[in-house]
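Figure S4 source data
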Amino acid sequence: MSDTRERVVVTEVGMRDGLQSIARVMPTEFKRRWIDAGYAAGVRHMEVASFVPARLLPQMADADEVIAHALTYDDLIVTALVPNLKGAQRALEAGVHRIVAPISVSTAHSLANVRKTPAQMIDAFADMRAAIDSAARHASNPRAGHVELIAGLSTVFGCTLQGAVPYDDVAAIARAAVNAGADVIALGDTTGEATPRQVGEIIELVRDVAGDRLRALHLHDTRGLGLANTLIALQHGIREFDASLAGLGGCPHAPGATGNVNTEDLVFMLDSMGYDTGIDLTRLLASREVLTDALPGEPLYGYLARAGVPKQFAHAQHADASISFRSQVLQ
């Protein structure tokens, strides 16, 4: 008998999406501690920074230092968000493995967030693709050739500024991003408006356009549907999800859209369903101490942190580990 659980990737985005949404600036030393604690818990995908002007987002002013620390872990996949070509060039110089570009489907949100229309962002995205390809051709480090470019489609499920986002617009932007060279399409519930039925419909809509490049979802829990929407996405074949420790996060240009899906609650749900996240839940919960030390008084969220891990779940986890160990001995 062996462990054949299906893998689901959980990307910790709190260091970027979580911290950009609070007024205080987390000192770099605590970001390093956060990376260390997350890695010790088994987190192997982290979005740790964004490359934007420090005057606009002082929370991300230490992006180079934070990325440099994350890269000390050889098997940690390090991601940065960039809004333009200059940001992409800085991210490439920093050595990240994945670059996410936010491409809003809502024109109103796009103008507020990046001061470009969706069409202009697609043009910028194509320039990022060219920059990545050029860097790969001239790189002495072979890993540089494997930088993934992710089209992070935002306001896919609705927009607090524009209102409803037509499905045809979602399909058009997804198609344009694929044509501009996206390696991955990720769907973002930027304003926390997604509903389970809508999630299923849009996944199938975008899959018809993007095929297997549609791989990830970035969900918020603003209206308490984050995990329900995740469940629907799982049923529709998605196996990569963003989440934020203690549910930190939101979008500065999406009023009221606070609260990314909580990493601890997401991992608990996935593990309880038999998926393999590679993340130790006990150590993940303990990593919240970094936030309480660095951001005293900041609201932290999470049902699991409040109620604890059910005894039967902990027992089942130990039993699975014992079975796995015995099977290795017998092989």
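Figure S5 source data
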Amino acid sequence: MAEIWKARLDEIQQMLARGRTSMARQALEDLREEGIVPADEMWRVHELYGAVFHDLADAEGAAAAYNNAAQADKYLRSQREHFSNYLFALHYLPGIPADDLFAQHQVYQGLYRDTEPLPPREGITHARLRIGFLAPDFRDSSSARFYGCLLTGLDARRFAVYAYALQDSEDDFTRHLQATGLTYRCLAGQSLRQQAETIRWDEIDVLMDLGGHSAGGMGLMVLAQRPAPVQICGIGWFDTTGLPAVDAFLTDAEMDPVGTDYRFTEQLLRLPSGFCFTPTPAMRRLTRQVRQRDGIVFGCYQNVMKINRQVMDAWRHILDNLPDSRLIVQDTTRLPERRAVLCKRLENAGLPMERVEVRLGSDRYLEDYQQLDIMLDTFPYPGGAATATALYMSVPVIALRGDHHSARLSASILAAAGHAEWIADDADEYIKLALQLAVDREALETQQLGLRAELERSPLLDVQAYCAAFSEAILARGGNFLES
């Protein structure tokens, strides 16, 4: 009997890999009704439900499924992964109070109650501060657009830089980093203890986790072993980790104003700007062309999991007030069933579907920015790299400032770009700002054509200033490990 249910689960995984999401969901329903999966193995079923709901852009279903998997799992390591996936999924959902979100993150520390950290490191100092960056991998990604400058831009006279990859996958971005002279180590295939001991062997003074609860929180499992005396998190994660082994969290005053520190288990390291964006060579090659207008074209090029009813209602009001406008929604995946689900949701929300186009993800998405006039951000989970990319591709972004760190990513990016006037404090202002920007088409075109040059001069792209601010913050934390 065991061979039967295991084989069925393998088949369902293959269905998901082929993009047959509805078929996978039905197969899971059939398997549950048959009752052949042992109770202590049901976490595997919940885990697959999480993948199904993700592929159907059902954030609420995904959060529930991953939480169920975490509750049912009998293996501590994968239980942590499920709970990290659950915490990640919560950020897609509107209406969760910031304090409740923090309370959910605090639960995570209970999964490390039996973890034995490495012995404290004593009496070791270095001429240069040794800073290690830990990530699932160092391939080209949305996070890499923000952390790449730190791995290559820190002053070599003051810092020795190490990069620790938890997976062995590489691409051109990885090879570029490896060629810059930093110390690169792949930790794939090692146990958590071995990974921590490798970092300890390098005598890292400050270790920065770039993943947080993304990718199942694998980096946090390493930090829980305490391989470095000072440990921080940021850039690739957008909330507290809830893990006491993480000492500090990288942010700015826009994402986390004074008075919000209590929502973090870490000390906040506020930089003048929380992000510094590095455009890819492909982005730099494309410049804005004057578009022959047939009405304003709004866009949302994002993971469509972020699109909820409140967002759709705001979009409907905008389109209703501009009868000659259109909306293009482009996903980051290429799942036709997910596209069909979103089309139905947009229709049910009352959007004029004759003026709405929903697209699958595309390798030519950068060229597609030429078709847009204004980008409409999502909320409460806004764009990060998506916002910065749109701005660099000369498309203004209308965003809504939420009430906690992850809901204020776009606000931070827009403020650093010098366009805080495009940040709304509620849905009504979001609609108003979009309409105001759209009605003066001559001014909008002037804004578009000059936007990239503005960005090039802004703090958002100022690598030198960002690295200097980061360096001072890190040296303040890790200065005790430098030779006097």
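The mean pLDDT is 96. The first strand starts at residue 129 and ends at 135.
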